[in-house]
Design a protein that fits this description.
Residues 50-204 form the DUF1638 domain. This protein is α/β, with parallel strands linked by helices. Helices cover 42% and strands 17% of the residues. The protein folds into two domains: 6-110 and 201-211, Rossmann fold, CATH 3.40.50; 112-197, no CATH class. The chain has helices at residues 6-11, 31-41, 62-73, 92-100, 110-115, 117-121, 134-138, 140-145, 157-161, 176-189, 202-211, and strands at 22-27, 46-51, 79-83, 103-104, 129-132, 166-171, 192-197. Strand 6, helix 10 (176-189) and strand 7 form a beta-alpha-beta unit. Helix 3 packs parallel to helix 4 (92-100).
Length: 212
């Protein structure tokens, strides 16, 4: 599969190919990681559909979007697995997945399952940390800077981020250019910078389970 742009994943998502037995329904922000794990493990029987990553700007819409995708696609597959954590739905997505009879990845959000839910829960003192993943570093302006109006009103930075102390870049890959960009994101937000290599965290095991 040709590399799909972050801009398309943000606004449109990724349509399934209908070439696998099991469908993964994921956030567009996870597409590169899911496809990398598929390739690395030869999981050709897993198909992927991504919903637009910008749904995370409107978490109240995620549950309905996932339900629509499951109902539209499940007849074409032997199984469906949802690669969304709670992601701000307040437990509604989990309840909907139970109602639909499909499994979903555990955790409050992708920052938790990328680090590993157990490891993430072990440092509850990090409530003043602002997290970015590879995708969010690349799409920082689209997901943080512009939606918060900081491009036009940088003085709002202290209002939004005054209670944060550091930016934690959870790196899925070792890419010096992303490291530099993440450090610049921290500088722009006026936060201390920490890089934490997580790799794919719990996503690897969840996909292995879905692969059977």
């Amino acid at each position: 599969m040709a590399l799909i742009s972050d801009e398309i994943l943000t606004a449109e998502g990724l349509a399934p190919t209908h070439q696998g037995r099991v469908l993964l329904i994921a956030c567009g922000a996870l597409a590169h990681e899911v496809l990398a794990l598929k390739r690395a493990n030869g999981w050709d029987h897993l198909d992927l559909q991504c919903l637009p990553a910008n749904l995370h700007l409107y978490p109240e819409r995620i549950t309905a979007a996932v339900e629509k995708a499951v109902l539209a696609q499940r007849a074409d597959y032997a199984g469906v697995f949802v690669l969304y954590a709670d992601c701000g739905t307040g437990g509604l997505l989990l309840e909907k997945c139970k109602e639909l009879g499909v499994e979903m990845i555990e955790g409050p959000h992708c920052y938790s399952f990328f680090e590993g839910n157990a490891a993430f829960a072990a440092h509850p003192d990090e409530f003043t940390a602002f997290y970015l993943t590879d995708f969010l570093v690349r799409q920082f302006d689209a997901f943080v800077w512009r939606p918060m109006g900081l491009d036009k009103h940088p003085q709002l930075r202290d209002m939004y981020f005054g209670n944060y102390t550091k930016l934690v870049y959870q790196a899925q890959t070792n890419d010096p250019s992303l490291d530099a960009k993440a450090e610049d994101c921290a500088r722009r937000l006026g936060l201390a910078y920490e890089r934490r290599f997580t790799g794919y965290g719990d996503l690897t095991g969840v996909m292995a389970k879905a692969a059977g």
